[in-house]
Amino acid sequence: TGNHWGYGKEDGPSLWHRNYPVAQGSRQSPIDIIPHQAAHDHSLDPIILNYDHCTSINISNNGHSVVVEFDDSDDRSVIRGGPLDNPYRLKQFHFHWGGKGCHGSEHTVEGLSYASELHLVHWNAVKYKNFGEAATAPDGLAVLGIFLETGDDHRWLHVITDALYMVKYKGSLTPFKGFNPKCLLPSSLHYWTYLGSLTTPPLHESVTWIILKEPISVSEKQLGKFRMLLFTGEEEVQRIHMENNFRPPQPLNDRKVRSSN
Ligand SMILES: NS(=O)(=O)c1c(F)c(F)c(S(=O)(=O)CCO)c(N[C@H](c2ccccc2)[C@@H](O)c2ccccc2)c1F
Ligand SMILES: [Zn+2]
Fold this sequence. Notes:
The chain is 6% helix and 28% strand. By secondary structure, the protein is mainly β. Strands 2, 3, 4, 5, 6, 7, 9, 10, 11, 12, 13, 14 and 15 form a 13-stranded mixed beta sheet that branches. It has a two-stranded parallel sheet with strand order 1-8. The model has no long low-confidence stretch (mean pLDDT 97). Residues 62, 64-65, 67, 91-92, 94, 119, 121, 131, 135, 143, 198-200, 202, 204 line the site of ligand WWX.
């Protein structure tokens, strides 16, 4: 029906261009990052994350990913610096992951993918009056990407994985207050940055991507809990486990990836 899209054979990334022609645009995401081809740009400032007065509201399963939403009515939770000319307000974060034993990140590094990728979506509230307007502007959004690799248990991820059973079905939502995503950051904030797009429909080419070089470690057990989520709703007969919800890398075209120091 209509603009239905997903990650399956019948509705997956290779078919999105039918309803979203920008899928074949010139600045699509994700991409394969080749570190030694990234230009070291000494003018790039460090990124600054002010997430201290965190304002998480709820956690939900929207049939594509698990999403934690934030109150973005003021500049309490912002990202600034780096390649950004303004502070961008945190709106939501979500994850992409693979199937058991498979990898599920969206960005790859020299063809290698990680087990999962966390995206923190921010919008330019200085230049645009609301998220929707920012979402279609070339400098409207900034998404911070963090790679997850399997290894030791992540000491704070359990706060999220413990809530997943409450949002098993598509369309479920539950309160999720006071979560500060700063606890999900790796120790280094070194990053790659490039101009790209949303990686799901509507695929707007409005994102400044900031991808942290250092992954965080999560256990296979913690990652397995994400796969307990369903793409399908409680009322549906079919139960399809939520996994492999990632778009493969897209052509770099004439874009340059820059590297912080
Ligand atoms: N990888 S990505 O960062 O491009 C990405 C996703 F991969 C992604 F799965 C989502 S999603 O919200 O989980 C479901 C698809 O909309 C969003 N959600 C977006 C969003 C909706 C509401 C509030 C903030 C972010 C996306 O749905 C969107 C952005 C802009 C305009 C319309 C929709 C998203 F931005
Ligand atoms: Zn994403």
